[in-house]
Amino acid sequence: MNTPFIQAVLAILRKDLRTELRSRELISSMGLFSLLSILIFSFALELDRVARQEAISGVLWVTVVFASILGLNRSLAMERDQGNLDAMLLAPINRAAIFLGKLIGNYLFALAVGLLLLPVMTVLFNMPLFQPWLILILFLGTLGFSTVGTLLATMTVQTRARESLLPIVMLPIALPVLLASVHASTNILTNAPIDDWIAWPQILVVVDVIYLILCFLLFEFVIED
Amino acid sequence: MSVIASSNPNQNARSGIAAWPPLLRILTLATIIAVAFGLYLGLFYAGTDIDQGQVQRIFYVHLAAFTGAFIAFCGTVIGGVQYLRTRNVQWDSIALAGAEVGLALSVLNLVTGMIWARPIWNTWWTWDPRLTSAAIMCLTYAAYLMLRTGIENAEQRRRFASIYGILAITTVILTLVITRIRPDTIHPVVIGPSVQNPNAEGAFEFSERMGMTIGINSTIWSTLVPVTLMWHRVRLQNLAERVNALKAEILNK
Question: Which domain holds residue B86?
Fold first, then answer.
């Protein structure tokens, strides 16, 4: 008797959200890291008015990606250290439901950090970051690398090198997502005509769909034993 | 085991598992001759480019190495998919061989590109979209090899490497299509129906002889070279695993 798919996904998501609500471990470390990161970028790049327009979307995306790597490592390490991964494998649920549950949780945390950064950066850099298109790109971009991140983090927490391996294996694979997101955001922020950059969100959607399907299919091989 | 232990070790080395299979000998010889022939065509048969001069000849190896790398990386994907389906270790050896051979060939591709770019673009390296994506592609497969060394359990290592090898092909595809989706690249588009990019620096029109040289070189490097190198690598992997098995057997005695 298998638990219905949706119910299993929601149960795992609820578990992650409840843990987070009680410990606030992920959001606080990811949030603090992001704030530090944009401060470091602002004086490392000496962002003046002109440089800001060009560089700000890069700063935003690099920060979101690194923060989500931090979060992914924690989120999956927690599953493993507490023996929860084994428990979920024993449970009569579809393996793909575990992936989807973890993915949605990680996605929400990454998205929360990204959405938190928008007002902060709007204030600190005096740039109009709250734009509907930019928020859409944020939704699409974080979905892309949360997908590959969830799959790869499940792999890397089972290895010897653990935390250090995830950025190495994840960044190259996430590059198509990052590339499309950064270019779309830069164009939006420089008020380029929509015809110039509408290809980027389209590419982003295609890449997201490809990664979702691939990772969804491959996940059952990650957690066999 | 007992057969190997009892027979003369010298004789065994010559006639036993260490000898190359006949087909591999023929293939190796054919590859060496074919590569030499391809180089001859590139260096002597094809005409000298009017604008770029002799340095343009490196292009015959540059493109050919990429086609070889592409085939090898496809071997990694096929090996990975088949390993996950059948759990036959041989498929994983093919995947590993594909990643290593592909990495070597794509580094060759990068290096020849840099040698060409120095006189033509007046710089060894530029952060052009295609150059960047090709570099990322190399790093992805370096990460593949790192992932392999990071896992002790052999079965888990094969499984994870298969998964990563399948995902990694996206960076290869990105490198292939990026000159189409990023109009600001200065890398010449040689193959395919796309209109030559107006920003491209160092594009050339080729004569019949040059076209033939490109075709023959690419064919050699995309068939004989990766297949032969991967076969040797798979063989090496099998021998290494055999040594490990024998070691374990001796230790358990």
Answer: 60-190+206-252
B53 SS3 class: strand
Specify if B39 maps to a domain: no
Q: Do A225 and B156 touch (CB under 8 A)?
A: yes
Query: What are B65-113's pLDDT values in tens digits?
Result: 999 999 999 999 999 999 999 999 999 999 999 999 999 999 999 999 9
CB contact under 8 A, A176 and B171: yes
Cα distance between residue A32 and residue A25, in whole Å: 11
What is the distance between the alpha carbons of residues B196 and B188, in angstroms, rounded to a whole number? Answer: 7
Residue B31 lies in a domain: no
As for the ipTM of the complex, it is 0.87
Determine, yes or no, domain membership for B140. Answer: yes
Q: How many CB pairs under 8 A join A and B?
A: 72
Q: Domain extents for chain A?
A: 5-222
pLDDT digits 0-9 by tens, B9-56: 444 444 455 678 889 999 999 999 999 999 999 888 887 877 788 888
Q: How many structural domains is chain B composed of? A: 1
Above 50 in pLDDT, residue B62?
A: yes
Are the Cβ atoms of B166 and A214 closer than 8 angstroms? yes
B143 within a domain of the structure (yes/no): yes
Q: Which helix (H) or strand (E) holds B213?
A: helix B208-222
The pLDDT of residue A140 is above 50: yes
Residues B65/B214, Cβ–Cβ less than 8 Å: no
Give A165→chain B minimum CA distance, Å. 7
